[in-house]
Design a protein that fits this description.
The chain is α+β, with helices and mostly antiparallel strands. The chain has a 3-stranded antiparallel β-sheet with strand order 1-2-3, covered by helices on one side. Strand 1 and strand 2 form a beta hairpin. It is elongated. The N and C termini lie far apart (about 50 Å).
């Protein structure tokens, strides 16, 4: 089991990310970053890698805002958005039938 993040808001965001398939990798040693989140898809459409890896700060200025940003990274993954569009189009086709 990995060590939990000391800020409860950020730990909740990390649980959210893991529930969506992201891998949370705590950093070893000292430093400003607590760890990083890694996208499970490694897709070329993920905005040139912008959303493929996200740093998790150990002591952000505002833990609630950092947690919100981490969730936004998960929610705005290009592959996840494509899946959502596919599901919506499939649902629309079923309703039309």
């Amino acid at each position: 089991m990995q060590r939990p993040h000391p800020k409860k808001e950020i730990e909740a965001a990390l649980v959210y990310a893991e529930a969506h398939g992201w891998r949370v990798q705590p950093k070893r040693g000292n430093g400003h970053a607590w760890g990083k989140m890694l996208c499970p898809y490694h897709d070329a459409q993920c905005r040139c890698g912008e959303f493929c890896i996200a740093s998790i700060w150990s002591t952000p200025r505002c833990a609630a805002n950092h947690a919100k940003d981490l969730k936004r990274v998960v929610d705005h993954c290009a592959v996840v958005q494509q899946i959502a569009v596919f599901k919506l189009s499939a649902l629309a086709e079923i309703k039309e039938s």
